[in-house]
Structures are given as structure tokens and as C-alpha cells.
Amino acid sequence: MHHPTLRRGFAAIAAAAAFTLFQPVASRAADVQWDVSLPWGPTEFHSTNAQKFAEEVKAVTGGAVEMTIHTGGALGIKANESLRAVEDGAVPMAEYAAFQNVGEIPLLGVESIPFLISDYNDLAALMKIVRPVWEAELQKRGQKVLYVVPWPSQNFFTKTPVATLDDLKGVRMRTYDRVTADMVTRLGMVALQMNNPDIVPALASGKLDAVMTSGTTAVAQKYWEFLKHAYNTNHMWASNLMVVNLDEWNRLDPKQQKMIEATAHKLEPQFWEISKAEHAKRMDELRANGMTVEPASDALKTAMREATASMEGEFVTANPAAAPLLDAYHKAVGH
């Protein structure tokens, strides 16, 4: 599906990127130069992962393929527009969170079904089943998946203490997508869907009372300046996809393609290990900056599970193709 207004905007972005792309550089010019759009801040681990990937690709291709990482949405492409931007060729490569692009491919939202996934082992089991389907759908949209890496465990970050569901009534909570917006509405909160760069201005202006996200983003955005409490709710999981436009990919010779695929295959497990270490590391940083960090109370977790118990079935009703995938997943993990 093409969107004329956005496409015109993307065309302008592409023109600006092309101007930068072909400026002279001191070293030998690469045969292929790709701009890579990321919405995450420069210090977040997904961004540093992307930089490492770019460096290793440049090394293994002998400098023939060079990727320039643009963090923080510097190319003007929002997280929830990234899939379309790669499809339309506005940018050769991008990394985006699957769930933020469910408007384009609804099955990308399967991870955000509340309490479907308990830990990294569950997530890996789901990825074995879902990833081939994601890759096939994205191929139809003109892009190739190079690697997939999850965010750490999710949390609620709030101004005031939260012990029971009553403490969340009326709280204006940042959400990711329709599924998480539905979840917080069922919990009595007011859902405000927004991308990462919009969170801090909304907190500063008083538009937002609370945020759901990982500890990684909370540290990068210094939530202790606005919020006082962190609760590990582990209510959903989210993965990022590094993708490349298929037309750009097909311009490479087969040897270069194999080199890049091998590099992605080598680094992806390393990137998962970095993700696994992130939660504890960032929670410690939040504590060091004065935030109270604790698990969600049993009462709150029970209430959250009860309020969202029907959401998996509703997701399947809205997306029938998810039914066999979820059946296979439940059999694989035994719950």
C-alpha cells in the first residue's frame, strides 16, 4: 500500500540523504553506501549493535559496502513509518520495532499480546515459528530481514506508587500500539500512543503521567527527571527488525550478499546476549539516580492478567492467520 502524502515526504528525505551520501570522503569510496534509519537514541544498545554490524560489514566486504547509522530519527522517519519508508525506497535500510508497524502487517503485533511470553526462551520459541512468516510478508513489501533482536523485559514507570489496579485509574499512560492501548484501557488508564522521541516532551509538558517501556529507554531518556517509580510488569515483549530494501539488496553481487548474511547470522546471538544483560544493568542505573525499582505486586499482576485474558483470542479473531502460529507456540513452550 502506498501513501501519496507520506511518499512525497519520504522523497524529500531521500533527496537530502542522497546529497549527504555522495559528499566526498577522505577514504576510498565504497561501491555501495546505505543510510540506515533508527528511531532509538545513540546510546541505546540497538543503536550500538547497528553500528557494530555496519563496521563488520564494511570489514568483511573490504570496504565495498558501507552503512551509515542515523540514530534518533535523524532522517525524519518515525518508528511507525519505517516499514513503509524502506518499501518506498526513501531509505535503503532501517531498524524498527515490529509492533510499531502493525498498521502495515498486523501479524507483527503478535509479541505484544499481554502475557503471551514469559522470558527469552519463550520468545526464541515464538521467533522460530513466527519469523519465517514475518520475513515472507516483508518480502512482499520489498524488504529483506537481516537480523531480529528483542528489547529487554517491560516495565511501568510512574510518578506515584502503584500497589493495586486502583492506583492506575485515570493515569495517562504511554502505549505502543492498538493492543497495548486496549490493555491499559482495560486497566482503567488513559492510553496515549506515541513514539520514543515524543515521550520526554509529553512528560515535561504534563501531558503524560506514566510510561511503559524497557529500562534501556528509561535510562536513555532520564526518566528520573519526571518519574519516581519503576515496576517490572513483564506484560509483553518486543523485537526490532533490521531490514534492507530488496532493490538495494539485489544490486549486490551474490558474494557480498552471502558475506552480509553471514555477518548478521554471527552477530544476532551476540546481540540477544546484550539484550539479556540490559534489564538488570539499567535497573541499577535507575536506582542510582533515585528511582524506586521493584517487581509489580502480586495483586497488580493478577489484576492485569485477568483484565487481559481474552486478548489473545481477540487477536486471533482479528488476524486468523495467527491461529496456527499461536497453537504451535503453545505446544512448543507447554503453556
From TrEMBL:
A GO BP entry: transmembrane transport
InterPro entries according to UniProt: DctP_fam, TRAP_DctP_sf
UniProt xrefs under Gene3D superfamilies: Bacterial extracellular solute-binding protein, family 7
Top-level taxon in the UniProt lineage: Bacteria
Keyword list, A-Z: Plasmid, Signal
Pfam families the record matches: DctP
Residues spanning the signal sequence: 1-29
PANTHER family xref list: PTHR33376, SIALIC ACID-BINDING PERIPLASMIC PROTEIN SIAP (PTHR33376:SF4)
Protein name, per record: C4-dicarboxylate-binding periplasmic protein
Organism listed in the record: Tistrella mobilis (strain KA081020-065)
